[in-house]
From TrEMBL:
Residues annotated as catalytic: S61 (nucleophile), H275
Domain of life: Bacteria
Coiled coil location: none
PANTHER family in the record: LIPASE 2 (PTHR37981), SGNH HYDROLASE-TYPE ESTERASE DOMAIN-CONTAINING PROTEIN (PTHR37981:SF1)
Pfam families linked to this entry: Lipase_GDSL_2 (PF13472)
Domain SGNH hydrolase-type esterase residues, every copy: 57-283
GO terms, molecular function: triacylglycerol lipase activity
SUPFAM superfamilies in the cross-refs: SGNH hydrolase
Disulfide pairings: C77-C101, C207-C255
Protein name: SGNH hydrolase-type esterase domain-containing protein
Species for this entry: uncultured Nocardioidaceae bacterium
Keyword ATP-binding: no
Length: 298
């Protein structure tokens, strides 16, 4: 409001006092501007949102996630519309090229994956084909099918010894390292994330959904830890991000009250046997978004 001469009061219109008042007003304006431009006391800093235009996903059935919920045959890959790459791409508003495929090994990233049933044969191109020079983001979730590390234990509990498991995990880590180097070569500027596997078993808890004896459960738990440690070391050597789902999935094992992975019976509306439920895929997508946001803020 503009004050007229009658409203100014005595002595305000001239001299040093006028200059002093002007200085005080200027300081107050500056303080208001500084306060309005800063975050409220105690409020968290806004999280940096990662920005990616193109996203390539490589992986095995823990990435393809059959029956979560709608599944495309995908030439034998059984890739679902609710897998974590699809969920993450939607959150990032990124264009997704998903080459994940059930039963894939590290070998299938760079060579054709062949499916066979009797005399019938089919194949899909190498997964690496979806990684291009301009790709912004690549996630890799692979290794569990190499040397049947998980499969042999889940199917027949063949009693892999801890020493054997550690050696197998180390060899698997070496092969995953070659995959990561190939990804880096194909997309030098991409952010690359190696995604670890969730916990399948709680050594202290069994159930009919996972009929593994009390003596075998600790063995499988050690195999899981050995594999994830090998993957963590591989990611560090390759200088890529690593999403360690092993600690994040504690309390969500197959026999838990809130499992992220299905047991021995396939549910064609939720998950294949011994494969991730929708909740597990959502958990991976959420954890990836948090990891990428933290990386963007650095």
């Amino acid at each position: 409001m503009d004050l007229g001469p009658a409203d100014k009061g005595p002595g305000v219109g001239s001299g040093p006092r006028r200059q002093s008042t002007a200085a005080v007003v200027a300081c107050l304006v500056l303080v208001v501007l500084l306060v309005s431009c800063s975050s409220p006391v105690g409020s968290p800093a806004p999280r940096a949102e990662p920005e990616f235009e193109t996203y390539a996903a490589l992986g095995d059935s823990f990435t393809a996630a059959p029956y979560v919920p709608t599944t495309s045959l995908a030439s034998g890959c059984f890739r679902s519309t609710g897998n974590y790459p699809s969920l993450l791409a939607e959150r990032l508003d990124a264009r997704l090229r998903d080459a994940s495929c059930s039963a894939a090994t590290t070998h299938d990233v760079s060579r054709r994956q062949v499916f066979g049933l009797g005399d019938l044969r089919a194949s899909v191109p190498p997964q690496l084909r979806v990684v291009r020079r301009g790709t912004d983001l690549v996630t890799v979730g692979i290794g569990g099918n190499d040397e049947q590390l998980f499969g042999s234990l889940v199917r027949d509990r063949s009693g892999v010894e801890l020493g054997d498991a550690a050696a197998v995990a180390q060899r698997t880590g070496g092969r995953v390292g070659r995959v990561l180097r190939a990804v880096r070569s194909a997309a030098p500027s991409a952010t690359v994330v190696l995604v670890g596997y969730p916990r399948l078993v709680d050594p202290a808890r069994g159930c009919r959904k996972m009929p593994i004896g009390g003596a075998d459960r600790p063995v499988l738990a050690r195999v899981e830890r050995a594999l994830n440690k090998a993957l963590a070391r591989t990611a560090e050597r390759a200088d890529v991000l690593f999403l360690d789902m092993h600690p994040l999935s504690r309390g969500h094992e197959i026999c838990s009250d809130d499992p992220w992975v299905n047991g021995q019976a396939t549910d064609d509306r939720r998950a294949a046997a011994y494969h991730p439920f929708p909740e597990g895929q959502q958990a991976v997508a959420d954890a990836l978004l948090a990891l990428l946001s933290a990386d963007a803020a650095r």
